[in-house]
Amino acid sequence: MDNVKQLRIAMTPEELRLWYQLRGRRFFGYKFRRQMPIGPYVVDFACIKAKLIVELDGGQHQDREAYDLHRSEFLNANGWEVVRFWNNEFRENEEAVLMVLLQHLRRLLPSPWPSPTGRGNLTSCRGF
What we know:
alpha+beta; 20% strand
């Protein structure tokens, strides 16, 4: 758990910016966690209900392709989908990255909000 705390403190500027977009259900109501342990790994961001992991990779990942592949295979085998973006890709075109992320989320979990005909109602989500 100390490792997770360290990773949260040492987030990159890109990770901080993405976390600002994702936290508190700001991103179309989807709930994310940051620096979440899954098995032996700690993922950057995870939407548990959609079983989607979002990774922002910096230049150090160019030398770690085999590790990242093995890591993704483990996560996929455990029911998670992993989507990766380069830090510079996010920095240069944040909106496009967020739209790709939204497409993945909508495919995996069409709506995080309760159905207006089911239990609960949308008026409880006014803060969004």
